[in-house]
Specification:
TIM Barrel, globular, 321 residues, alpha/beta, binds flavin mononucleotide
Length: 321
């Protein structure tokens, strides 16, 4: 039994996003309406092993350990790891348990070439036997619930083989980004496929929770997609950009500009405090998303893009008002 069993359905979860869902952004979202489950950014299991065991880097100085920093405001929280080596996944899963996470999520969907070259991420879909071994390694190494985030196939939709292989591995939950690897993010997510996934799940292993992901705009949209497809939960990613209120049910236009700008300042301040090893320029994605859709937005955005500290960003915003 784990927190997964206590979630009321449909539940709504935060997508793991590299350089987005760091501790600072998770705090921002947690204060405005928490999702039912938080996710970290993905982190390389091999990288954790190498930096800690070979290079003997101190945890306080290790950027990969920085990715795994969290506070109690963000619970339940899963750490997302990736590797193509069972022993590395075991190492990272054990570490994640020691750090107090509520679950281990394994990335088997990332299309980034650098990740795939290592046989990780989406490449795992080409090797279901290895994927099962990786999952078993995580399950054996920690007593945490193990979940997987993946896509509906590599070149083509292959739910019959791929989803069945995952279901056989007795995961707590599976998140399906409803696109193939080949489709990247170039075509709309195919929510019709979620119905097929639910049928397979009901037949092969009804105890595994299924979470749908892709192009969900807001909570109303998430509820409609869950009702139409029969999935247990819905994951929202880009809908959080500029709208940390999304899990409270707000649409981007529901929030007054002053409140958005205050949220951006708070994010920048927390970013400096909580992710000291990250470059301030990572916040540019958020600046673009928060500062849009009003008279003078382009001008203010351009000014904020040049700032390099929370204080400078706050000063530039104050100058405008
Ligand atoms: C900037 C960015 C970073 C991402 N990083 C990750 C990641 O670390 N792990 C992962 O499983 N997916 C990652 N994704 C994919 C998202 O979790 C999600 O599957 C995708 O954005 C589709 O959902 P959406 O339409 O709700 O955004 C990332 C996506 C974006 C845009």
């Amino acid at each position: 039994m784990s927190f997964w069993n206590d979630l009321e359905k449909p539940f709504f979860v935060m997508a793991p996003m590299a350089d987005v869902t760091d501790a600072a952004f998770r705090q921002l979202v947690a204060k405005r309406g928490a999702p039912d489950v938080f996710w970290t950014e993905f982190v390389s299991a091999d990288g954790l092993y190498h930096t800690r065991e070979i290079k003997k880097m101190k945890d306080e100085e290790n950027p990969l350990m920085g990715i795994l920093a969290k506070t109690d405001a963000e619970r339940p929280i899963l750490a997302q790891i990736f590797s193509s080596k069972p022993e590395m996944i075991a190492y990272a899963a054990k570490l994640v348990a020691e750090l107090g996470f509520d679950g281990v999520d394994i990335n088997m969907g990332c299309p980034d070439r650098a990740i795939e070259k290592q046989g990780c991420g989406a490449a795992m879909m080409k090797n279901p036997k290895l994927a099962q071994e990786i999952i078993r390694a995580a399950q054996a190494a920690s007593n945490l619930p193990v979940s997987v985030k993946t896509r509906v196939g590599y070149h083509n939709e292959s739910l019959d083989e791929w989803l069945t292989a995952l279901l056989e591995a007795n995961l707590a939950a599976i998140t399906l980004h409803l696109r193939t690897r080949k489709e990247m993010s170039l075509v709309p997510a195919d929510w019709e496929l979620m119905k097929k996934a639910v049928e397979i799940r009901n037949r092969v292993n009804p105890s595994v929770l299924l979470i749908g992901n892709g192009d969900v705009q807001d909570l109303d949209d998430a509820r409609a997609k869950a009702a139409a497809s029969g999935c247990d939960g819905v994951m929202l990613g880009r809908a959080m950009f500029g709208n940390p209120w999304v899990f409270a049910g707000r649409k981007p236009e529901d929030t007054p500009l002053a409140e958005k700008l205050a949220a951006l300042i708070e994010l920048a301040q927390d970013f400096e405090k909580l992710t000291p090893r990250k470059n301030f320029s990572i916040l540019k994605k958020h600046i673009k998303a928060f500062v849009t859709g009003f008279d003078g937005a382009a001008e203010l955005r351009a000014k904020l893009m040049e700032t390099d500290s929370a204080a400078a960003l706050a000063a530039a915003i104050a100058e405008r008002t």
